[in-house]
Amino acid sequence: MCGIFGYFGPASHRTGQDSGELSHRGPDASGEFERTIGDRTLWITHDRLSIIDLSDRGRQPMTLADDDIVLSYNGEIYNYEQLRADLKETGYEFTSDTDTEVILNGYYEWGLDTLLERVRGIFAFVIADHQTEDLHVVRDCFGVKPVYYFDGEFFACASEIKAILQRTSVDAVLNKSVLGEYLANLWVHEPDTLFKDIYKLESGHYLTHDLTTGDTETTEYWNILDATPDIATTDLDELIEQAMERNMVSDVPVGVYLSGGIDSSIITYHAAQSADDSLLALNLRNETDKEFDEFANLQRLGDRLNIDIESFDPTESMLDIYEEMIYYLDEPIADPAIIPAYLLAREANERGIKVMLSGMGADELWAGYTRYKIIQHQSLGRLGAPLFNGAYKAWPSRQSDFRQKLRRVGTYLSNPGPNSYFSLMYYFDSETVSRLLKSDSWREDYEAKIEAMLPTGSQLDRVQQFQYLDLKGFLGSHNLIYADKASMANGVEVRVPYLDRDLAEFAFHLPTDEKTRDGLKTPLKEHLRSILDGEFVKHDKQGFAFPIEDYLSSSRMHDQLETMVLDDRMSACFDIDVIKEQLEAHFAGEENYSMRIWVLYTFWLWLEEFNVSIPSKSESKAISQTS
């Protein structure tokens, strides 16, 4: 994995040279390419994390055809050796053993669309082609590797937003039009970000910027809805083995994150079968008797597979780590899961492992979330909505997590459907969001975005529709984003075998009844039983608990929350009286609003870290009318 950056425009909008904003993503080498074209400048940089062909022959930006084609690439193409062999048959010669050179020559030989149809991997890259006078920016099918862009008086793109902010004249200004969406989700759907005029390139898309006219066009090159896997004849075991074989391609050691659940146990089993050396499996735990008993189950799995399982319990302040991660995240993502993602990657780095395998994506594709069961049977559950709402109001413990779940289920079943999905998953209700923003208009914008994302004219069942929303949103704009940022902050590449394109297409199009006939993720359970036994299917994953309520009660957090409430930028965004109301209700023990407070606190930390300015009401209205 690496850090990429591209700029094309007047030199006057370049505010600085590469000053290391992306060096954590590529600590092994760096390079740049620069060319003047009329009164404009093309500037492409690269920070390298060496995974395939560790020699200097893999340095980037890499060029072809007398420097007329320039590539800066982040990611891994797992089938690059086969593509390399195909290109050699047509007469191409290679000077390195990198997948980078395969992309470059494959683009030259086949064109971008055919190249993207043939590759299997995770990637984001920018190609400047002086022969066609185009600049292309590409993101992989599921968005494992993020890439952001600005398109105005000049064009800029980068693996992280901070590079655009620090190297160009783009200012850090809040995009108020998606503030309600952030409160509802804890994050913002692609292509938007909370920075005005800076966008995430959508997964499965590429962007083409015309170097002559300055016009920009975005193309969707892949959508899982268009896939037509042969469900009846496809062998799931073979698909999983193929995906694992691809994800093990590396010139450096590969490790695995092992939680003890079904997804990571399957990955660990297959990785152990193909690893050249002893496989390192990392596990993050809380040091309590309960978790220690759970670790004994992991040790049994380690003994069965003859692998080393290293379990560790961090001792430093989780608040310190969370505040540090705000810088690396670029955007506020108010999910404490960022912390274990960061700690695991840091531990891998300290042990000299550059590549780690993760089970991320399995729940979205194989119907692993409990909410899918609620959605599957929502027609029956809708009759019980008053019961859920009544139980929520009558529940004796106001601080109970279960009580909050009753509220979310009751709210969703009262008005089930895609536009109410966030109410089933998250912590703010729509009424409170409207009160915070002093406006209901956010909901209309949110619903329009969800409506635009939903597939039309398809044969998807109800659960598959929500799985599709999760793939486009919860996975592509939330889970994969924070996983990338947390790992790359430590110079570690995280691979996701369940998002192998062929395996994922099969999983998504498998009928929901097949995936849920034995609770959730039935086919994966059956696969695990076939390679190990039923004992390991019964074990739940071992999670790392982050006690937000305890941290909120600390004197440090009280001081920070008081400062937050007094910040003029917060009052320019929200009704401060509503924030105070939420704080008072929580600390009086009347409600458990810990996650609501955390969402606001995360947003405030982001304002501080990036010195974000707030547009005036007139500016916000103009933005809303043009977006």
What's the topology here?
Layout: E1 2-10, E2 29-37, E3 40-48, E4 62-64, E5 69-77, H1 80-89, H2 99-110, H3 112-118, E6 121-129, E7 134-139, E8 148-151, E9 155-158, H4 161-167, H5 179-185, E10 198-200, E11 205-210, E12 216-220, H6 236-247, E13 254-257, H7 262-274, E14 280-284, H8 289-305, E15 308-312, H9 318-329, H10 338-350, E16 355-357, H11 362-365, H12 370-376, H13 378-381, H14 385-394, H15 401-414, H16 421-425, H17 430-437, H18 441-453, H19 462-488, E17 493-495, H20 501-509, H21 512-516, H22 522-531, H23 534-537, H24 548-552, H25 555-566, H26 568-573, H27 576-587, H28 594-610, H29 617-626
Parallel strand pairs: 13-14, 13-16, 14-15, 16-17
Antiparallel strand pairs: 1-3, 1-9, 2-3, 4-5, 5-6, 6-7, 7-11, 8-9, 8-10, 11-12
Helix pairs in contact: 1-2, 2-3, 5-17, 7-22, 10-19, 12-19, 14-15, 27-28
Summary keywords:
Glutamine Phosphoribosylpyrophosphate, subunit 1, domain 1, alpha+beta, 627 residues, Rossmann fold
Describe the structure.
- There is one protein chain.
- Residues 623-627 have low confidence and may be disordered.
- A hairpin with a 5-residue loop joins strand 11 and strand 12.
- Helix 1 packs across helix 2 and helix 10 crosses helix 19 (462-488).
- The protein is built from 29 helices and 17 strands.
- The protein has 4 domains: 2-175 and 191-222, Aminohydrolase, N-terminal nucleophile (Ntn) domain (Glutamine Phosphoribosylpyrophosphate, subunit 1, domain 1); 226-366 and 465-537, Rossmann fold (3-Layer(aba) Sandwich); 373-430 and 438-464, no CATH class; 548-626, no CATH class.
- The strands form 3 sheets. It has a 6-stranded antiparallel beta sheet, with helices on one face. A 6-stranded antiparallel beta sheet has the order 4-5-6-7-11-12, with helices on one face.
- It is of the alpha+beta class.
